[in-house]
Amino acid sequence: MTPSASQDPIVVTGLNHSFGQGSAKVQTLFDIHVQIKRGKLTTLIGPSGSGKTTLLTLMGCLREIQEGSVRLLGEELFGASNETLNNMRRRLGFIFQAHNLHESLTALQNVRMGLEVHGSAHRHEYDAAATHILEQLGLGDRLHYLPAKLSGGQKQRVAVARALVGNPEIVFADEPTAALDRDTGLKAVGILKRLGELRGTTTVMVTHDHRILEMADRILRMEDGRIVDQT
Fold first, then answer.
1. Contact 48, 202 (CB under 8 A)
2. Which of 150, 73, 81 is nearest to 111 (CA)?
């Protein structure tokens, strides 16, 4: 590994992953090697079932590393303790196609949770920070709405705001623009780009949305559990 590679926020070496046991065991990732640069927007593309989401969740501390190495922000995830993994997750932001909002909390309260998890602001600043990011995503008039009163696209924007409000070091996003119209999707990805430029936030995004590929700093194409092309 080169000295510069060791400083990259994500370094994956010889990663393999399987689901199932015994005769039902199916390998889904094969000898993945990749380094993700700080502050860059990297997209994972490829057909359904190619391993994109599995790779994303392994890099994001959401699945156990079975074989190989994932170094995340300088920490080795293979064999890491639960305490180490929990501490690492607090430094990350997650955006999923299923927005996973708390139905009993308003949009503002859902976004506040992002700050409470990260512990990255004083409590009296929570509402101001949450309000600001929601306004940036066009939800200034929906702050006190429960998810049941929001459209699918609005819920997804709340999920994006929740992931970004704590200024995470890395954002992992799985189809974050799937439920968004073109303008809102471009605005959300634009925010991720600006965070990379201004704060060094690194983004890894699984997407089928060709509208945003031109905004990516790097595109990794996957097929059958392998990275087959890097641009």
1. no
2. 150
159, burial (CB in 10 Å: exposed 0-12, middle 13-18, buried 19+) = buried
Q: Determine whether 66 is exposed, middle or buried from the number of CB atoms within 10 Å of its CB (0-12, 13-18, 19+).
A: middle
Residues of the chain with pLDDT under 70: 1-6, 117-124
Q: Which two tokens stand for residue 212?
A: 């945003």
pLDDT of residue 166: 87
Residue 10 burial (CB < 10 Å; 0-12/13-18/19+)? buried
Map residue 94 onto helix, strand or coil: strand
CB-CB contact of 223 with 213 (8 Å): no
* pTM summary value: 0.90
Choose among 201, 205, 193, 171: nearest CA to 94: 171
